[in-house]
Design brief:
By secondary structure, the chain is α/β, with parallel strands linked by helices. It has three domains: about 280 residues, Ribonuclease Z/Hydroxyacylglutathione hydrolase-like (Metallo-beta-lactamase, Chain A, 4-Layer Sandwich); about 150 residues, Rossmann fold; about 90 residues, Ubiquitin-like (UB roll), CATH 3.10.20.580. The chain has 15 helices and 27 strands. The chain has an eight-stranded mixed β-sheet. Strand 18, helix 10 and strand 19 form a beta-alpha-beta unit. Helix 4 runs parallel beside helix 11, helix 5 crosses helix 6 and helix 14 packs across helix 15. It starts with a strand and ends with a strand.
Length: about 550
């Protein structure tokens, strides 16, 4: 009997680390392998990646990894997975270039077996037959996949929208999708849920041109636009508007420079070379003749936008007649950082336009009616909402029911939940317990509750290290204790507290040496230090005793 399992290791109940598994008996393929950017609840963490342990079973043959497109939430974990289990990777030219670069940065020993595919191409991977379908999204060469199995076909939309006027001419062709679907036994639709709660139909990518032109008309100085570096259709429009308004373009940020070079090389950008200037040349251009395109839409501290705001580019500053446009949205969890950066921009005297007060950004994800149209076009037997927070997945399921499907035909599941299809129907199997990994300065750390608790405590309360040298037989101090802190704001107060800690430990150790002690000295030191910190600071830092026995 054929058993078809569908489960996700990421992307259900969150924005990021999208990874869907399609397993037919002991054969499997993976769709996407993304990363999740930290939202501030995990201090010091770069990205979070899926738990790959369910994919490491040697009895399951993983034939390939299919990539829908090159956004980080869909490719950000690829090198980490390939390091664990190297399989062929399928994707388009643009996706290949970005994944190749990512793998090279990860390790020069990682071998990438990348197989190029193109729009409308059909091919076999093990027992699965795949058809790649072009989709409109906020990046070039986005794909959806028909995946044919023994029980029927699955259509995975990837990220998509219905764009009536795409900047790059790439549409989500519902008629073509409906035609393919009608020729198959459509078992399952797995569909993007991001904007299911936004009523109506999505807006055309080209609709931002009016807003950007208005910004150009009203800006006497430099116009600075920050957008996602991978959004080639958006960058192309911005460059065309700069050319139309006789402004030179300065690109700030390695990723935007790299992506434009790649887009030009494979035919996705057509702008004259003399449109662009470098940093030195930009300082010689009149501000009213300059547009700056910068990375850093989410106010990342090391990105070009933040560096520009804080004057870290020689000869390039923001001032009274300049305007900054955020041609992007705030990724959930980054709002505070963005508003903080906007406040700094305002202090420079520059004006700020965002997605909240001007038509300078449209989403790359379909609105509610787009998603309804997709359900009607595919006409699946079952429907699984993917890619979104739980409230969005639930709303997407409700939309499918509203569109004519029954509750039994629709699912509301989270990461690790397993749907098993057979010729007798579908059942939900027990959830796979998952432990996502955090990337901390290149090191993988299991995302445990205790680790997160310590990171948060370190960020909020600081840390105190105490070093002391003792006689292990008598507990007498050989040298006076020495205390150091990290994360205390007031230097003068910090020194007072450290002095108090050293005095307290010295007094307590003298008492300890006068009577038998059979307890845990490290724990005793923590108790002493905690008392001092609570008395002086009303905080409980992480305490690290370092006891040397001589």
């Amino acid at each position: 009997m054929c058993k078809l399992k569908i489960f996700a290791l990421g992307g259900l109940g969150e924005f990021g680390k999208n990874l869907l598994v399609v397993q037919q008996n002991q054969d499997a393929i993976i769709v996407d392998c993304g990363a999740l950017f930290s939202d501030g609840r995990s201090p010091g963490i770069d990205i979070i990646i899926p738990d790959f342990s369910p994919l490491l079973d040697p009895d399951v043959h993983i034939h390939a990894l299919l990539l829908t497109h090159a956004h980080e939430d869909h490719i950000g974990s690829v090198p980490y997975f390939l390091h664990e289990r190297n399989v062929p990777v399928y994707g388009t030219r643009f996706t290949h270039a970005l994944v190749k670069n990512k793998c090279e940065q990860f390790s020069n020993k990682l071998t990438l077996d990348f197989r190029l595919i193109s729009d409308h191409q059909s091919f076999d991977i093990g027992p699965f037959h795949i058809t790649a379908v072009p989709m409109a999204h906020s990046i070039v060469e986005a794909l959806g996949f028909f995946i044919d199995t023994r029980l029927g076909s699955i259509f995975h939309t990837g990220d998509f929208k219905m764009d009536p006027a795409p900047a790059d001419g790439r549409i989500t062709d519902l008629d073509a999708i409906a035609k393919i679907a009608s020729s198959k036994k459509m078992l399952l639709l797995t569909s993007d849920s991001t904007n299911v709660m936004v009523p109506g139909e999505s807006l055309a990518e080209t609709s931002i041109q009016e807003g950007i032109q208005s910004a150009l008309d009203q800006t006497q100085g430099k116009l600075v636009v920050t957008s996602f570096a991978s959004h080639v259709p958006r960058i192309m429009q911005l460059c065309q508007l700069a050319q139309k308004n006789d402004r030179k373009v300065l690109l700030l940020g390695r990723s935007i420079i790299k992506n434009i070079e790649l887009a030009k090389a494979i035919g996705h950008m057509h702008v004259p070379e003399d449109l662009f200037v470098d940093e030195q040349q930009a300082t010689q251009v009149r501000p009213s003749d300059l547009m700056i395109l910068a990375t850093g839409t989410q106010a990342e501290p090391r990105a070009a936008m933040s560096k520009l705001v804080f004057g870290q580019f020689k000869g390039l500053t923001l001032g009274e007649h300049d305007r900054v446009v955020f041609s992007s949205r705030a990724i959930p969890g980054h709002e505070r950082s963005i508003y903080h950066l906007i406040n700094h921009i305002i202090r420079t005297g520059a004006d700020v336009w965002t997605w909240e007060n001007a038509r300078v950004h449209v989403s790359g994800h379909g609105y509610r009616e787009d998603l309804r149209q997709m359900i009607k076009a595919v006409k699946p037997e079952y429907m699984l909402p993917v890619h979104g927070e739980l409230r969005m997945l639930k709303a997407h399921r409700a939309l499918a029911i509203e569109t004519g499907m029954t509750e039994d035909q629709t699912f509301f599941i989270e990461n690790g939940d397993v749907l098993e299809f057979t010729d007798k129907g579908v059942t939900q199997l027990p959830r796979i317990e998952l432990f996502p990994k955090m990337v901390d300065q290149g090191m993988l750390v299991e995302m445990s509750a205790s680790y997160l608790k310590d990171r948060k405590k370190l960020a909020l309360q600081g840390a105190v290290a105490v070093m002391m040298t003792i006689d292990p037989d008598t507990f007498a101090l050989i040298h006076p204790p020495f205390a150091e802190e990290v994360g205390f704001v007031d230097a003068r107060m910090a020194q007072e507290v450290l002095d108090a800690i050293e005095d307290q430990i010295e007094r307590e150790m003298i008492k300890l040496a006068k009577k038998p002690f059979h307890g845990n000295l490290e724990q005793q030191v923590r108790t002493w230090v905690n008392r001092v910190c609570r008395r002086h600071l009303d905080r409980k830092p992480i305490i690290i005793p370092i006891i040397v026995e001589v």
